[in-house]
Amino acid sequence: MSRAASPQPPSRSVLAGFLSLLGEFLITVGLVLGLFVAYSLWWTNVLADRQASARGDEIRRQWQSAPGANGAPGPGALDTQDGIGFLHVPAMENGEVLVKKGTAPDVLDDGVAGYYTDPVKAALPWEASGNFALAAHRDGHGAKFHAIDKVKNGDAVVFETRDTWYVYKVFAELRQTSKYNVDVISAVPKESGRTAPGRFITLTTCTPVYTSKFRYIVWGELVRTEKVDAQRTPPAELR
C-alpha cells in the first residue's frame, strides 16, 4: 500500500514574499499611528492656540470698548461663551490662558481653561468666598496645563478680569488622585489642608502625561487684589 506524500514546506520565495508584505503593512501602520500622534499632540495644539488667541483678542477689544467699573455691570456680566478673563501662571511658562465657563471637551478643546459647573459649581474670584476651580488639558488641544508639575508652593497664580487682578499664592498640591475625587474642588478643599472658608483657586488636569487615568491638583489662596489701571500694568508677580 502506497504512502501519501507528506506536505512540503512553502518555498523560500513564497515565505520571503509574505515577510515583505508583512513588513510593508507594519511600516504603513506605523506611519498612520505616527501621523495620528502628531495630529493629537501637535496639530490640535496649533489649531486650539489659534482659536483661543482670536477669542482672547476679541475679549480684550470688548473690555476696551466697555464703560468703566462705575458705568457697567460687574465682572460676572462678562460671563459669556467667549470667556470671563485670563489666567497667568508664570511657573508654567504658557502665557495667558483664556478662561471660559464649563469643563466639557467641547470647551477645553478650544485651547482654554474652564471653570467647573458640574458636579460642583466653582465660585468666581469676585465672590466673597469659595473655590475658583479650573480644568485644562495637559496634552493636545492647547495643553494649557502641560507644565503643571512645575508649579510649587509659594508660586503666583494671577487671574485677570476687565477691572481687577486677583493674585493667588500656591500653598498645596496633590500629584495624583482619582478622577472621581470631587472633594478637591469643593468650597473648602480639605485635602489641601484648609478647614475654613476662604478664597481659593484650584487647577486640575490629567496625569500621568499622555493619559487621563488620574488627576493632578494645585491649590492657591487669594493674597490680594489690584485694580486695573489705564495701561493694564500687571502686578509685580507677572513683571
TrEMBL record:
Keywords: Hydrolase, Membrane, Transmembrane, Transmembrane helix. The active site is at 137 (proton donor/acceptor), 206 (acyl-thioester intermediate). The chain crosses the membrane at residues 21-43. Pfam families: Sortase. It comes from the Bacteria. The keyword Transmembrane applies. The keyword Nucleotide-binding does not apply. This is Membrane protein. It comes from Streptomyces roseus. The lineage of its organism: Bacteria, Bacillati, Actinomycetota, Actinomycetes, Kitasatosporales.
